[in-house]
Structure formats: C-alpha cells, structure tokens
Amino acid sequence: MNIEIDPRNRDIFIFVKDKLYPRSEAKISVFDSAVQGGDAVWEGLRVYNGKIFALDRHLERLQQSAKAMMFENIPDSDWIKEKILETLSANLMRDDVHIRLTLTRGEKITSGMSPSLNNGECCLIILAEWKPPVYPSEGIRLITSAIRRNSPQSVDSKIHHNNLINNILAKIQANLYGADDAIMLDITGFVSETNATNIFMVKNKSIFTPAADSCLPGITRGIVIELCRINQLPLYEKNLSLTEFYNADEVFTTGTMGEVTPVLEIDGRKIENNSNVSTLEIIKKLFREKIKLETGKTF
C-alpha cells in the first residue's frame, strides 16, 4: 500500500467537538465513548479540486448510523458541512485530501458501558490529511482471512461504526502473509468484502458484486453500480464464492481510500483476463468522469 507520510500533515489543524486544534493538541477525553467502547460512527471523504465528493451521501449515512445507535442530539448536515469547510480552509486544502469524519456518542460522567452515562452531547472529529489513494495503481494482492465478516445477527454492517476489531484482525493476517488486504467471507462462506473495501468481479463482460447482506454497502460501491446500470453494463448482486473470484476475468475493489483498484492475485491465484477486453478500464473511466462532473459546493 502507498502509505507515505506527507510532511505537510505534521502541522495540520484538526476539528474536535467545537473548535480547531493543532495536531499536537487535538485530543478527546478518556471518558469519551469512542475510548470507552468504540462507540462512534465515521465516514471517509475525498476532496477533488475544491469539491468534497459525494458529501451528502456520506453525511446521510453518518446520521443514519448514529440514529441506529441511538445517539442523542445528532448534528445536522449544514453544521457538519460548515465545520468541514472551516477545517479545510484552516489547512489550505483543496485537492488530494482525505477526510476521516468521526462522530462519537460523547463523554460519559463516569466510566461504564451504558449510554445512560453520557451527557447527551456528541463529539465531532474532522481529521483532514493530504493523502492520495492508498493502493498502487497497478493493483493489489489479496489473501482470504479466517475472520468472518459480521452478519446482521451480530452487528449490522450497514451501521458504519468504529468497532473495527474483526477487520483489523483480518488486516493483521494480510500483513503476515505480505498481502495488501484480506477478503472476508460471511458466516455461510460466501465472499463479503475485504477488510477495508467492497469487491467486484468481471466474468464474460458481466460484472458481479456480493449482495450487501454482511458487507457495508459502500458509497463508492453504490456509485459504481449506478454507473454500470446507467451505461447498460450488465451487473448482478448475488452470493459469490471464492472459486468464482479465482476464475474471474477481472477483480477490483472500491472505496474512498483507494477509489477503484485492480486485484492482481487472490490466495496465490493470478487473476487472468483472456478476453482481450477490459471492463474494468471502462468502469474506471466512468468513475473519473463522475468525479469531474460531481455537483457540489466549491470552496
């Protein structure tokens, strides 16, 4: 993965709760719910040429996740947008920027699990960094993790929450095997997603992606699905096995951190496209055009 520390990020300003702080001073309380139990929701945003891509979609998911977790006094979109723009302005950021937007349940009056111990005031954290897409453009290698993705019977993946332990355990396995990321299966053995992204495959010019039963229905995933349907590219959401991915013509992942990324290999099996046609290149071109045409407030 292309994780290089940009020296400009050493002196960034970060928004925490109600004001901006220099990076060295940006902190939350040890009584904050994010510290006490990972009790928070989050979104990843990307900034292109003075526009925040798919901002309204991300804020809607943030607020819906917070509602599902019964947060009190969830901030509205206008206030969050104002604080995001304030943060970007303070850092003189307009392009090649990634934002980690976190909303915690807020501080507790004493340590404990129950939300009844919270003071009812959420804590918003806006961490904007100069950070290009993290995956190499030529593609990534995946292994399959032994860690299963949560099913709706345990923690519904449609809540974009901060409790990422199972994803982190899967990522550890990928690190140990020298892979970029790990595929996570659902409890029945079908492919769900990777530890960090949604996943697609192409076979005979048709595009397939796992049904969003145990995976997060990602924003980038949704945009790719829309682009395929608008442009009459056949796309199917269904249960998919590892064997189908091993034998796909093309495989790719989607997500804010990496955009649309080719997969070169899964569990040592090279992904080989013998069709002489790259459906993935068509999708990548459509996605780049979507970024350029995205409507939204320019700052």
Describe this structure in words.
This protein is α+β, with helices and mostly antiparallel strands and 299 residues long. The protein has two domains: 8-130, D-amino Acid Aminotransferase, Chain A, domain 1 (2-Layer Sandwich); 140-293, Alpha-Beta Barrel (D-amino Acid Aminotransferase, Chain A, domain 2). Helix content is 26%, strand content 27%. Strands 7, 8, 9, 10, 11, 12, 13, 14 and 15 form a nine-stranded mixed β-sheet that branches.
Please specify the SSE layout and strand pairing.
Blueprint (H helix, E strand, L loop, with lengths): L12 E4 L2 E4 L10 H5 L2 E9 L2 E2 L2 H14 L8 H14 L6 E8 L18 E8 L9 E5 L20 H12 L4 E5 L5 E4 L3 E6 L2 E5 L8 H12 L4 E4 L3 H5 L3 E6 L3 E8 L2 E2 L8 H15 L6
Parallel strand pairs: 7-8, 7-14, 11-12
Antiparallel strand pairs: 1-2, 1-6, 3-4, 3-5, 5-6, 8-9, 10-11, 10-13, 13-14, 14-15
**Low-confidence parts, pLDDT < 50 over ≥5 residues?**
none
Write the CATH architecture name of the largest domain.
Alpha-Beta Barrel
CATH T-level topology of the largest domain: D-amino Acid Aminotransferase, Chain A, domain 2
Rg from C-alpha positions?
20 Å
Report how far the terminal alpha carbons are from each other: 30 Å
The secondary-structure element order is EEHEEHHEEEHEEEEHEHEEEH
Classification by helices and strands: alpha+beta
Total strand count, please? 15
Mean pLDDT over the residues: 95
CATH superfamily of the largest domain: D-amino Acid Aminotransferase, subunit A, domain 2
Number of helices: 7
Instruction: Describe the largest sheet.
Output: 9 strands, mixed
Please tell me what the overall shape is.
Answer: globular
Helix content: 25-40%
Tell me the domain tally.
Answer: 2
Strand content: 25-35%
CATH class of the largest domain: Alpha Beta
